């Protein structure tokens, strides 16, 4: 048991994860949401991931840049180079406290934004979106909250599916103060 | 009565003042009718610099001067010009001092022109609260900023009562602070829980505070210092801090965008190790070494309350040493909470792997284990109660449990010789995959330490540290009573060995980021994957008794003890074969040798390593 989502077949050896199949990042539906969840959970555990991407993102691909970059990305080489050079462990993560979630967002170079999610509706939506969720399954409050989270780039909403973007930090780096 | 509590620069910008948080509660509990307000001057200073310098002097610069500059008195110096009414006061001496020691002073020098106007603005703001009493807390470099403001306050409102307290006021330091600064009405020496409310009662009633233990007060023009008490404050009387006013100040401050606030809590005072064996160089506990801890359940309740109230998950503890009972009644509660806390704790370095694992599981991922040295004889000289082998083990376990380990390598102990260091320095390249010290530092002579109180230990000649020459305009005998750090003749290693040690530590720090030494299990084989800086990449394979020996040495053992263990495990190894294998493993840098004890160096896991300072805010 790796503790990682089973929707994406993978092999775990030590602190390395290998994904034999392609992960669809095209954003057409559930597959992309599942891929994001898988990579997000790997990042939260501080695992090194070897994976290959398929599909052309139908959304702003910068939304994934806090996740471990793929070995291969169809199309533009510059896109992959930018992902690799801009990737930093802990650039975006969340932590859970009693009745709230804190988010650290360092995705914009030179910034470090702290957000606290403590509004019950927002928190409930965030918790729900930790699992890939079809928009159809959300009530109006949930859809509004998903929209707010997407506007802050804390959720990816595409192809009728939504998924939360910040990993929960489960393994601190050394030094732990670096993130 | 209106009581205004003040913390001046250089209180860390990311932390509330525990002292103010405690005093606020103490006064309100003892005197419910009093109004207690707070002034967070350190935060104000960062705001002031940011605004007045047009963004040139940023909160990160305050850290550089206020924290990193402690051993050069840079933060105090910034405000000395205000205290002495001379913007250029001490500048030439500071420049000479800095040139001799290669100290960067540009930021401090750039800050000084803002200090006078800042102190004036502080005085206006403090007086706007219409206080009857202004209480300053002063630790490290808060003396001169506090004195500068105290002087300005008394100039503007002579009837105001100014009180100083805090770590800088312990013992003779407090009396010297008092008698040399007539604008300071009272100095509370030692713990304030009982003394401060007692002083307020006297002020209210207009009586002379002759019965407040440790207090300094003016008898006409004579500075009186009441005898200090040996009675320490019971844990039950140490309140839980109130950080509401700090939170309000931070919420209203542009500085909040630059800092990651953390909570500060206190589980214990004193040091249980120091009660039995006072580490010879340490003066941190002042005159109150007696160890007193809140029950773990109560500490956890306090943290829970603060976490809920402030919605912060980073917690710094100020305890000089963790209460070992907390491994039973505190850390399991933290680990079981399901909250993603990140705690900082000072611990003793002889923790078991199980205790280190619990620290990791509880989110106590930043520890300061007081390692100080990797040489057993030097550790003996400092009465540290651990061996070099044990310290190496702790460093290795920190890798296994992804614990961030802050430590210094100290040298300069009376009686140490080059022979105590050369075997350790020779082996430092083998430790490059473990977390390096912040540097190799010669010990300082600190007031209250055994080195200070007993000149026979080797530091017979002492004088106030040179840095105070650019901080205070006071005669030598007064400085001798007022300051915490002293200069003395160098003891222990000097010259080439000292330089060799510093170079070896610098190489460790430079090579650490890309170095790994990892165990891997492959069927019957135990692999050691060596990717350490300074060695060719290699994978060593061990089977049978050799694999067993390497595992057994994780705990650190002598060769005869290892031999017995292997025999008990069914491995009949000839003694000379074991000796030869030990020599081989040592030559590969897979073992650390401390006298007769050998410790395995490979780790079972590797943390995610990031460059130091990657997360520092501007």
From TrEMBL, chain A:
In its UniProt entry, what is this protein called? Uncharacterized protein
UniProtKB/TrEMBL annotation, chain B:
Against InterPro entries, the record matches this protein to: BchE-like, Cobalamin-bd, Elp3/MiaA/NifB-like_rSAM, rSAM, rSAM_horseshoe, rSAM_ocin_1, rSAM_sf
Against Pfam families, the record matches this protein to:
B12-binding, Radical_SAM
Q: Which UniProt keywords apply?
A: Iron, Iron-sulfur, Metal-binding, S-adenosyl-L-methionine
Molecular function GO terms recorded: catalytic activity; cobalamin binding; iron-sulfur cluster binding; metal ion binding
Q: Which cofactor does it need?
A: [4Fe-4S] cluster
Entry GO terms, CC: cytosol
* CDD domains, per the entry: radical_SAM_B12_BD (cd02068)
Q: Which residues form the B12-binding domain?
A: 74-210
Q: Does the keyword Glycoprotein apply?
A: no
Q: Do the record's keywords include Iron-sulfur?
A: yes
Coiled-coil region: none
Q: Which domain of life is it from?
A: Bacteria
- Which protein are we looking at? Radical SAM protein
State the organism of origin. Answer: Streptomyces cellostaticus
